[in-house]
Amino acid sequence: MQIARKFAFSAAVAALMAVAGAASAQEGGKLKLGTEGAYPPFNSVTADGKLVGFDVEIGNALCAQMKVECEWVTQDWDGIIPALQGGKFDALIASMTITEERAQQVDFTNKYYTTPLALIAPKDSALTSPEPDALKGKTVGAQASTTQSIYAEDHYAKAGADVKLYPTQDEAMADLTNGRLDAVVSDKFVLVDWMKTTGQDCCKLIGDLKGTESLTGIAVRKGDPLREKLNAAIDAIVKDGTYAKINAKYFDFDIYGAQD
Q: Quick check: helix, strand or coil at residue 122?
């Protein structure tokens, strides 16, 4: 009974903090947005310390639509949800796939893009299929605590592959180019961009992973009314063409997707 009361009290405090945080952001005309800063082309930090990428431009467009000032905060991926829950920022725009497990910890907006997973390998690889059986005896890399790492462990590892997980996407790609991995599984759009800018001479895209298309949303604290304000802003920038202009800067295809 005492434990139940303690849980109820903690939940109530968390809800009050979420509402207070959103109100504070609105009253102060500022919205703190969190991202990883290590997931190009969606979010990354330039050599001179500037935060750039698709997520960042979408976040800035949403702030403009909501008539608030954006303040960006970077956070390592492994601690990114606890940082949101702890009030380090008001919303999380970091290419986070909406999953049932995450939805138990945070509330998600509607999607702001749709993506499948894909597999990449060295150009001289004999791999021709991304199916799990084709990776038996191979070493496959993925970023830890992501949907791609879950896929790798649930499918490739069970098919007999050795799965290596990395703190960041960049570290996985570095090991691929250095010959320490036979393949990397990741967000297809990240791999397509990497192939254009870095990996065109070393690697090849093997293919999409069937059944992995997923929705990416903005995370807020549980019960935070900011969620609906962000949903309205997402709809507005899609409708007025702002989203399409940002999309065209990074991709030569539509990543929003026609269906929810």
A: strand
